[in-house]
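Give me the 3D structure for Protein kinase domain-containing protein.
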Amino acid sequence: MKAKVHGGFEVAVKKVHQKDVKVQKELEKEIDILKKCKHPNIVAYYGTKLTTDQVWIIMDYCGLGSVKDVMKLINRSLSEPEIQYVLRHTVTGLNYLHQIPILHLDIKAPNILMTESGDVKLADFG
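Predicted structure for Protein kinase domain-containing protein (126 residues):
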């Protein structure tokens, strides 16, 4: 879900039902990781809101969606220069994670997001 916050910039809101303990522990782990990450190639974390049955994670809005979404939108695979661009930024983000030290463990097209200005960001640490 997309929302605007005070100041007018857009954020993404990831809504997760917190019914079972396993989901809740995974969510806590993802939030802890996001709080530690401050890098242009990692989705920025802005906060959490708790409701009676949901956790809302507020983070960077990546208007183009995932690399998978982009390939559907353009109706083709990425060209070699496009792949190089995405990989360069993905590896930069991974290098940062390994330095702090965090392992992503689920690198795939749906977890690599792109902003409308072309920024590449790693997401989904759960």
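Residues 12 and 61 are 4 Å apart (CA to CA). Let me know if you want a second pass.
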